[in-house]
């Protein structure tokens, strides 16, 4: 297959873009060894962080069905327009292979996030791409525009990387998608690990096969302060530190009050839901205790005890259990509306307190029945 339209325009006029100097910067054996070790380590950490990450909460149905705001639509159109121009430059220069660079992938992800309605998948994508803000920052600190010779090509470079930071700020500021708790670093870990896996699996393989230095996976940039044989290991370390810092600082600077309120209440709500499930399991034990008490009193009655006392007619636990199940269903339908969740928490606490009272009553009744049984045997 002819790939000239994708790589023919790439040359070594710009230092360390391709060519023998870049290919011989380090051996392919070392490149593959680093790729295998880093990828396996990232997969293990990714699996660990995925199990620990808090679940994603969506807003109520009324908020999910709201139409896109004018600002969001304009930002989406501008982002799409800039990316279309960038693709035109890539096809004109026959260097389409550079579309695989992370900043272009992040551009596509942000366009989709702006266009789609909130869902668990889009929220996950937004949280993951929040850990790729190092790309726009490094693009401004260490710009690479020497190969951009067409009119407005350099201007497109600056505008695209500026939008890569403006879009997340706009989304956070307007509360379109909620980020994770400010103290939760599990989603940060997931985002960083996915970024590293993309570099060492996808970009590393394509760079070795094509000889093109995609995002400096073949050789270090001229301006790289960590230039040398270990530059990729150094990049793994300093980018794993830089990405979480940029993520959390951006959230702290631009989150609105509603977003911060959601972050503070989310973990508390999650813990209380877990506690509710535990208490529901205790209800099964209460039902067993109730049936044991019923069988005991029936046995005492059939034996014709002379000291029979009027049995206490206790309210069935099914009523309380049905109330809690019904209450939880109501909570699930509105669980993502913060104010409603606060009211539900008080109602659930009251129901659980009633369950505790019934439990004590059951224990006392069971003890009384045992005493009656013992008295009968003595007589």
UniProtKB/TrEMBL annotation:
Alphabetical keyword list: Membrane, Transmembrane, Transmembrane helix
Keyword hit for Transmembrane helix: yes
Domain of life: Eukaryota
Pfam family membership, one: TMEM164
Record field: transmembrane: 70-89, 155-173, 185-209
PANTHER family for this protein: TRANSMEMBRANE PROTEIN 164
Name of the protein described by the UniProt record: Transmembrane protein 164
Organism: Glossina pallidipes
